[in-house]
Amino acid sequence: VWRLNWLADRSERGWKQSLSMMVNYRYYSFDRIDRNSIDYIDKQKIQIDEQVSKLL
Q1: DSSP labels for the chain?
Q2: Lower CB density within 10 Å: C or N end of the chain?
Q3: pLDDT tens figures, 1-56
């Protein structure tokens, strides 16, 4: 997850599904994508950007 977008989908459906938030993903080299996929499958771990980490 690279970035969180507040009020990105202000439709009724957007509010019900995600409180109007949407995310952007940053894609890296294919080697890193494979590693990230394995980490998610094995450990339920996702890569997040520093700006997202600061929000947690």
Answers
A1: --EEETTS--SHHHHHHHTT-EEE-----HHHHHHHHHHHHHH------HHHHTT-
A2: C
A3: 888 999 999 999 999 999 999 998 877 777 788 888 899 999 999 888 888 888 88
In the block, tokens 């969180």 appear at 4
Joined together, the tokens standing for residue 51 give 């700006």
Question: What's the number of domains the chain is made of?
Answer: 1
Structural domain boundaries enclosing 19? 3-53
Contact (Cβ atoms closer than 8 angstroms) between residue 32 and residue 8? no
